[in-house]
Amino acid sequence: MIQNIFETNQNEALAYLSLPIIVWVTIAGFIPAILLFFVEIEYEEKWFKGILTRALSMFASLIVIAVIAALYYQDYVSVGRNNSNLQREIVPANFVNSTVKYVYNRYLAEPIPFTTLGDDAKRDTNQSKPTLMFLVVGETARGKNFSMNGYEKDTNPFTSKSGGVISFNDVRSCGTATAVSVPCMFSNMGRKEFDDNRARNSEGLLDVLQKTGISIFWKENDGGCKGVCDRVPNIEIEPKDHPKFCDKNTCYDEVVLQDLDSEIAQMKGDKLVGFHLIGSHGPTYYKRYPDAHRQFTPDCPRSDIENCTDEELTNTYDNTIRYTDFVIGEMIAKLKTYEDKYNTALLYVSDHGESLGELGLYLHGTPYQFAPDDQTRVPMQVWMSPGFIKEKGVDMACLQQKAADTRYSHDNIFSSVLGIWDVKTSVYEKGLDIFSQCRNVQ
């Protein structure tokens, strides 16, 4: 969460401001502070006596704490050893410790050498047609709110009718915030081994693919790619350039489809286009979909979502999921127009989930050890053209079964994408390749 605070952008920060919050801070914060400023404080004439009195009081308190701890040491020690993560729940020590740790690692620690990855990467380019793949990173989508995963409301009316879309029922995120999950899923480190400092100073998935001759292009609509696109051609959507789809700060995700044909035309050979969607980013969920996609009502067009009813909040959030589904459906439709020239495919996965008031939690960013399922279970979808399926030897029935019965995670993304592109490299792990068991590769 401290990392989120430091790395958030202006648009995300402004989304948390609302009139009720401003009024509350003014009444409960600024006005009392001003009144206290004019309160006269009478100090003891002998300052040494005051310091001594306070020191003795603190010492006496420590003695009492020590006695209590000694009497119940056996109870405390087992709890502490078995639940070491409890130290992260001590307020405000946890905030101070996390802030100091973040500042040190990011700005004060000695920089580690930059590491290249997959320098031995090679790829079989003997294929009937070149390949065009869309790799789509979603934002704040909950896997349980996908109707293709059993959700009661029809939040996937577009991809479910696209033909051949497979939805993975149980996928877990690497983190509960974009700043962690996105670098993690594009690295060759698993969730348990992930280190942000190492990831920032290392090449990732897109770098390895680019080394094999694949033309890469990244379109950013979520405020930053967190370093994963730094060494490949990329653009960040500017709201001022697309007034039809944007307000002054953010854009509907349809905007990434603009100019796409010309951008693809400028790429050479096999092509991968990456998209980073703003998806279901809160708390201003109502700003993530246009009125034409306001399917579930009543919704809640406000940022102080704790004041929405459960029905309103869920409807608003589900509208964002449905709109993302529309965008993914449009991407698949676009890929179908290229089937005469390319073998095409799409992989979509969200970075993390979201809490909508369950257990008293909202938004995301809860420490992973305590995070509810809603924040860590994410959607993932795959679509492949008939030509791609034939070229790659994919058994779609097998993949559909795996998607329904097997738990996957962001740990699988790195090797799965390398594998489906037939990249041979020492950093590829077949055991993490989702597609490997469902391919007939000679």
From TrEMBL:
* GO terms assigned for molecular function: phosphotransferase activity, phosphate group as acceptor
Q: At the top level of its lineage, which domain of life is listed?
A: Bacteria
Q: Where is the Phosphoethanolamine transferase N-terminal domain?
A: 1-106
Read off the Pfam families from this record: EptA_B_N, Sulfatase
Q: Tell me where in this chain the Sulfatase N-terminal domain is found.
A: 133-420
Which Gene Ontology BP annotations are present?
lipopolysaccharide core region biosynthetic process
In terms of one coarse class, where is the protein primarily found?
A: membrane
The portions of this protein that span the membrane are: 13-39, 51-73
Regarding the membrane, this protein is recorded as: Multi-pass membrane protein
Q: Which NCBIfam families match?
A: P_eth_NH2_trans
This one is known as Phosphoethanolamine transferase
